[in-house]
Structure formats: C-alpha cells, structure tokens
Amino acid sequence: MKPSSKKYDELEPRHVWTHFASMSEVPRESKKEERIIAWAHEIAKRLGFESLEDETGNVIVVVPATEGSEDAPTIVLQAHLDMVCEKNAGTDHDFDVDPIRLVVEDGDDGPMVRAEGTTLGADNGIGVCLALAAAQDPDVRHPAMELLFTVDEETGMTGAIGLDASKITGRTLLNLDTEEDGILTVGCAGGCDSELTWTFDAEPVAGPGPTWRIEVRGLRGGHSGGDIHESRGAATKILARTLAAASAQSELRLVHLEAGSKRNAIPREGHAIVVGHGDALRDAAAKLQGLGRVESQEPELEVQVSEASIEEATALTAGDTSRLLDALLALPHGVLTMHREIEGLTESSNNLGILATETTASKKIVQAVCLSRSSIESRLDETISRIAAVARLSGARHETDSRYPGWAPDLDSPVLEVCRRVHEDLFGRTALVEATHGGLECGLLGARIPGLDMVSLGPRIEGAHSPDERTWESSVVYSWKYLVGILDELAGS
Question: In total, how many domains does the chain have?
C-alpha cells in the first residue's frame, strides 16, 4: 500500500473521522473502559446533550428530536465502546497508555484507514462515531434518540448483560456493529467461554537433551466469528501439533506454553519452551510449517526452532506433557457445522484462542480458553459438552463463563422494512438481509428490553481483532448516507 494523497483531516464525513481521531487517543481495552466512558460523557457535554450511566458503565446520551419530529417514536443507536487490543510481535505499543496511531493509505476502494502495528478499533469505534455525528450534525433530521454505548462487548458482553433497561425508552434499535456495507444483519449466533485448567507437578529441568524454543508466527489471525469459516491457521493448534509430532519421535518435557491473547481472536502467534531433542523438533517444525501453509493458505506462516537459555527452570514430566498435548489435539477448533437453511453461514464453531502457563515453586498451571458459538442452543451445549469431556479425560478443571443468547431473525420487523426501503431509494438496489456467526449484543438487548425491534448495519471493516484491521472512507461515507436516510424516514413526514 502507498500513503494516500488524502490526509486524515480531509476524510469524509468530517464529524465521524474527527470523533474517531479523538476516540483513538483514549485507551479502551475491554474491562478497562473508565477513560473511554469519561470521554463519552465529555463529548456529550461538549455537544450540549445529557448523558446517563448505569451501574455497569453503559453510557446513554439523550438527544432531543429535531424540530418537527417530536412526535416520532424514539430511536436507539447502539454501539460498544471497548476494542480488542492486539499488536504484532515487536510492535512497541502499550494499550494502557499509548494512542492508536492512525495511518491513511490508498486501498482498493480509495483511502483506507488502518493502525500502525495494532488493531484499529473501528470495531466498534466507527459505530460510536457515526451515532455521535448523527446527533451533532444540524443537517440530519431525526426523532428523539438515545445513543446507547455499551462496555465490555468483546470479552463477554457484560455491558449488555448488565444494562439497566429502565434508562432506555426507545423500542426501535439500530445496532451499528455490522462490518460490511449493503448488509442488514437480523440475527446472530450465541456463544460461551470455556476455560480448562491443568495443574501439574513441576520437576527440575534435566535431560534428555537441551532446552528449545519453538515459535509460531506469521499467521493472519482474525475474528473468531467473522473469519472462522476461512479455516485460517491457529497458533494454538499448530503449536500443539508440532510438539505432539516431536513427542512421537522422542521424549519431550514442557517448560512453558503460550499462544494467543484473546478468546474471540483467531490466535496469530505462540511459542513453547521444551526439553527434548533438537532433530525431532526441527523435523516436526518443518513438517507443520509446510502443512499449515497448504491447509490454511497461510504463506507467511513460520514454525521456528532455536536453542533457549533458561536458568533454574522446571518442567512437566514426559507423561504429563503427552497427556496435555493429547488434550490440546482433541479440543475442537474451527467450523463444526454449517447452517442448513442459510447457505454459507457457519452454524457452530469453536475457537481455541488462548494457551497460557503459570509457574509456581512446585507446580505448573496450564490454561486453555475457548469461545464456542452457535445459532442453535443445543449445538452450543453439545460443543461445551465436548470440551468438558476432554477436560475430564485429561484431568483438567472445566469452567464456563459469559454465555450469551443468539438473536433470532424477524423478517417481518418494521424497522427492517424501513431500512430495506431506504436502501432501495438511496442506492437503487436491494440491501442483503443476513444473519452472522459473530456475536452481536442484540440478543441480550432484546432479552433486557421487551418489544425491541432491531436491525444491525455498518461500514466495511476487514481484519477485525487483528493488526490487519482496516476500513475505507468510501464505506464510511456509504454507511453515513444510509444512516442519515433511515433517521430521516423514521423522523416522519
């Protein structure tokens, strides 16, 4: 990509990109949203609007109707404040302190915006900024609006789960978290986290050979809902397969295992430190690098072996190492079933997103974190049961957390009909109506607010949950024009 001839402060629509630049200055990792919550209140105050906050931390900005639209029903514009914080190895960036460094380049459809070595936060920052811009722009006609900015969407949707529904009066909601323009999302999968924890006795490192570091890098990663159907390589599984292949040739003892950092991101990088024979490890690494490049179409994948220098380390026994690797091989990952009625839609999946090791004086604690998704509740139960069975057979503790419901499509939705009609009028073509395998907050919001009529839309975002995340000026313009048209229609005659 080449730097764009268009500078950031020349991007349109101006209000949207101005808010996004301001938002990008504020740290907003999931569960660390105090500063972005304060930012949302400050922006609301600056624009002259009242803002409320519930006990969970969700922010509601109250926007009066434009003149002549006071009798129209209140509309809720909803997006989430937090972002997935991922960075490339070697990128010097502290998400607790540093701003997101925005870069504008020439893309395949005009100016493209990305971040320097990190996730961009367009998911779902652009949605927040579209809502603020609609409230701010005096040329936008709209009914009374409640801008609902939720917290902690990316790590369990606890903002939506804990929403104080009494603070929301609107019963029509536009979720601004769809990541492709021209798409109206009317349903999504439910999901649940699983954590498996193994506790092993740790023994001093000694024989049968030197200590080695095995590193997996160069994978694309991506969104564990939106990209899982592409069978992208997962560092967790490639690392486990490499170690298992080496263990089959000669004795192996695990010192440390680490891969991935977010349960909802396909893991891009990982490494292990083991005691074993270098020839077996190098053979296994070469084999898995070749297989991974072919199986997942990951030409940049590297599986490298190098000597590791460690002092006073402990390791698992060879038997415990084999038992752990068998469990990691048995854990499901990727697409499990496809939807029978909606062509091309993933029905059920599992993402083995995180492997981590903690060492104490006498123990090693290894944790695996999965995010399972399904649009059918019983299929989600089945996947969780499979994971629990692996845990029982391998001696791990299994716990589930942050379960959230799916969102069942309502093709007779009144707001869907409005959105379809406006799209046809503005763009001369029919909007596609789809369900997504990714998780949206609509299912939870619908459960919290009875009678809520919902649809989701938004601009094109690619590479979400990875440092490849990017969006396009042209798509944000498209989504802005569409949102303005919908609000105008909802404002009445």
Answer: 2
Residue 333 belongs to domain with CATH number: 3.30.70.360
Parallel, antiparallel or unpaired: strands 314-315 and 461-462: unpaired
Percent of the chain topping pLDDT 70 = 99
Average pLDDT score over residue span 286-294? 96
Whole-number Cα distances in Å, 275 to 70, 315, 316, 325, 412: 71, 8, 10, 15, 61
37, 92: one domain: yes
Query: Which pTM does this prediction carry?
Result: 0.81
The sign of the torsion formed by the CA atoms of 261, 262, 263, 268 equals negative
Catalytic residue set: 82, 153
What is residue 305's three-state secondary structure? strand
Residue 11 CA to residue 426 CA, distance in Å, equals: 22
pLDDT in tens, 337-354: 998 877 888 999 999 999
pLDDT digits (tens, 9 = 90+) for 162-172: 999 999 999 99
C-alpha closest to that of 44 among 59, 31, 65? 59
What is the DSSP code (8-state) at residue 344? Answer: T
